[in-house]
Specification:
The chain is α+β, with helices and mostly antiparallel strands. The protein contains six helices and six strands; from the N terminus they run ααβββαβαββαα. Helix 1 packs parallel to helix 5 and helix 5 packs across helix 6. The longest helix is centred in the C-terminal third of the chain and has 59 residues. The chain is globular and about 85 Å long. The protein starts with 7 loop residues before the first helix and ends in a 7-residue tail after the last helix.
């Protein structure tokens, strides 16, 4: 007589699966909060991308998590600008002909998910590399801005790691969307800072031009009165007094420079 499974066993297994699912959902939520917090505080786009690759790589235990950005729409190459497994990577030019899954996501704007990379005919040429790295799946998630692909998230899992679920893929789509928006904001901020820097340089040039004109007038005045009663007064002036006079002169020059700004300039 064989023992029949206890009626409680299926319920316990279902309960454990539900607990595991809730744990995964909690981990995704925590990661999303961390990503939002970190990219909000980041100013430069490289910092944003490093945050995203590090968080996703840690969450899913990935073999590889990278970000590729487009050089120009429809071009034959992309730029590898951030990588979870090698944070030193900054800007490597990648030929799309070597990455058919990457090219598909770039051209279609759709997620390219290969659950079993070793069985995919398109990846036959790199099968040895995939076997050596114990690769299980490859997923490429496009980053879209106003309907255009500006880059992709590239995720690669291990053979002995957990597979990416549909919920995981949807989570990655959300992260890609957040990343695209953060990149556009960082780009705008960098342009604004560059414009403000140019205005500061322009103001400094005006001050230098005003200073040169001032010195020319001053030298001309001393040349005209070279033999006058003022001769010999300069050596007797103290260093502190000279510093004070220079400070006053620079204040006046700065105001004069602002007064000569072109109409419409700040």
């Amino acid at each position: 007589m064989t023992d029949r499974p206890s009626p409680a066993q299926p319920d316990a297994r279902a309960l454990q699966e539900r607990i595991d699912q809730l744990e995964r959902e909690r981990a995704r939520l925590v990661t999303m909060m961390e990503v939002l917090r970190d990219v909000t505080g980041a100013v430069h786009y490289r910092d944003i991308l490093q945050v995203v690759t590090r968080r996703l790589g840690s969450l899913f235990g990935l073999d590889r998590c990278s970000v590729f950005l487009t050089a120009r729409a429809g071009g034959p190459t992309v730029h590898l600008v951030a990588s979870y497994e090698d944070p030193s990577i900054r800007n490597h030019v990648i030929d799309l002909a070597r990455y058919p899954e990457l090219r598909h996501a770039m051209e279609s704007g759709q997620v390219a998910h290969i659950p079993d990379a070793l069985a995919d005919p398109a990846l036959l040429s790199i099968s040895r590399t995939l076997v050596a790295r114990r690769v299980r799946s490859i997923t490429v998630v496009p980053m879209l801005w106003q309907g255009h692909v500006i880059g992709t998230l590239f995720l690669r899992t291990y053979q002995d790691g957990p597979p990416l679920t549909d919920q995981d893929l949807e989570f990655c789509r959300v992260v890609a969307d957040v990343t695209a928006r953060a990149l556009r904001m960082a780009h705008r901020l960098e342009r604004l800072q560059a414009r403000q820097g140019s205005q500061a340089l322009l103001a400094a040039d005006r001050e230098r031009a005003a200073l040169i004109a001032f010195l020319r007038r001053l030298l001309a005045s001393f040349a005209e009165r070279e033999d006058g009663p003022s001769q010999g007064l300069l050596p007797r002036a103290s260093g502190a007094e000279l510093d004070r006079l220079v400070g006053v002169a620079m204040t006046v020059l700065a105001r004069e420079a602002r007064g000569h700004q072109a109409p419409g300039e700040p």
